[in-house]
Amino acid sequence: MKIKALLFIIFIVALGCATIKQNNTAQDELYSLKCTSCHRLYPVGLYAYKELLNYTHKYGRGLTADERSRLLGYFKANAKQK
Question: What pLDDT score does 37 carry?
Answer without folding.
Answer: 77
